[in-house]
Design a protein that fits this description.
The complex is a heterodimer of chains A (about 180) and B (about 180). By secondary structure, chain A is α+β, with helices and mostly antiparallel strands. Chain A contains five helices and eleven strands. Chain A has helices at about 40-50, 80-85, 90-95, 120-125, 170-180; strands at about 15-20, 20-25, 30-35, 60-65, 65-70, 75-80, 100-105, 110-115, 140-145, 145-155, 160-165. Chain A is globular. The chains are: A alpha+beta (about 180), B alpha+beta (about 180).
Chain lengths: ~180, ~180
């Protein structure tokens, strides 16, 4: 009955190619934050290991059955395929029960996947992350055009940005302006 | 309702509401309607205003104690020429007024010393077809019917206005009790 729209307001995710840069909107990822409740670290570690949920170290992203990146001490953002995990909170509750506080975050964010051989040239114009020095699977919070974002370096040529969904077009504008300046 | 379905939801609600003449409205419309009804909100609730200022003194029982009762009885807050909520409309209904303007008596020099109060909330009323405003006017409740000027001392604009009841629409509330 209800047709979803993407953060950029279309029926399908948009992909832009600007010179050598590809900026792809993604709406096929479900997100939830996972925070350890007081005194339950061991329970979380055990349940996560048994169910393929990585709990990466600070500044890191990791992928097993599901993927996750570090947000703050004892807190992670968990990624899952939207098609199978639209109600991601229910999936994670079934794993962690009352040992964690789990908050669905899926539609709070816009996800852009950026692909290019010279991504550091682009990102050094946009934020304070030293992408050249960052290892693969580095993940950090940063600010782009006054918007708080998460940046995940998936490989040398691909990063993911999560920015606030309601500012999706603003974030895209910042990305395209910077990309255009390099073409 | 996940955000991605929000757009579809509001469209479905609008469609489903057609047979009931349902309309969607937002905070701007709410702001216009509360001013048309003379309801005080943020601009009038400024941290200095009391129930007496807002024309709500009768709602505060003097027979019982309440938080703020002692303060509300202090001389400075109860004097006759204190600020009272009034309604304002331009004499020439085609004239727009300016938010932030001050009340000045007719004939007074346009300086801050002659200020008798100020416009707090100003909108164009689609129901009345002209600008209306709420304001705090010294001894305002005894001055309904007075003709004054609202003067913006910064922008140097001036509009002749009538001081009226702040209840612009349906003052007896009959439309709410059908």
């Amino acid at each position: 009955m209800f047709d979803p729209i993407t953060p950029l307001g279309h029926a399908d995710p948009q992909t832009l190619t600007i010179g050598l840069f590809t900026i792809a909107e993604r709406s096929d990822t479900a997100l939830a934050s996972l925070a350890t409740r007081r005194g339950r670290s061991d329970d979380i570690t055990r349940a996560a290991a048994a169910n393929g949920v990585p709990l990466p170290d600070p500044g890191r992203y990791a992928s097993e059955t599901l993927s996750a990146f570090w947000l703050s001490p004892d807190m992670w953002m968990v990624e899952a395929p939207f098609a199978s995990h639209e109600d991601i909170r229910a999936h994670l509750l079934a794993i962690f029960h009352d040992a964690a506080s789990i908050t669905e975050q899926t539609d709070a964010w816009v996800r852009f996947d950026l692909t290019a051989a010279n991504l550091p040239d682009l990102m050094e114009r946009l934020c304070n992350v030293d992408l050249r020095a960052a290892a693969d699977h580095a993940a950090t919070r940063t600010v782009i055009d006054h918007l708080g974002c998460y940046l995940i370096k998936r490989s040398a040529t691909t990063i993911t940005l999560y920015g606030p969904r309601s500012s999706a077009e603003t974030l895209l504008h910042a990305l395209t302006v910077a990309a255009n300046s390099l073409t | 309702m996940p955000t991605r379905y929000g757009d579809a939801l509001i469209r479905a609600l609008v469609q489903a509401g057609q047979e009931f003449d349902a309309v969607v409205y937002g905070t701007e419309a709410l702001g216009v309607m509360r001013i048309e009804k003379g309801h005080v909100a943020g601009n009038e609730l400024n941290g200095q205003s009391t129930a007496l200022n807002m024309g709500l003194a009768k709602m505060v029982s003097r027979k019982k104690d309440a938080i703020g009762m002692a303060l509300s009885a202090r001389e400075g807050l109860t004097k006759d020429d204190g600020l009272r909520l009034v309604g304002v409309k331009p004499v020439d209904l085609a004239m727009p007024m300016q938010a932030g303007s001050n009340f000045l008596k007719t004939g007074m020099a346009a300086t801050a010393e002659h200020d008798d109060g100020w416009l707090t909330s100003l909108v164009f009323s689609p129901h009345l077809g002209h600008y209306i405003a709420l304001g705090y006017l010294k001894n305002g409740s005894a001055r309904l019917g007075e003709r004054m000027r609202v003067v913006n001392l910064l922008n140097k604009t001036e509009v002749e206005v009538d001081i009226i009841s702040p209840h612009f629409i349906d003052p007896d509330g009959s439309r709410l009790r059908v």
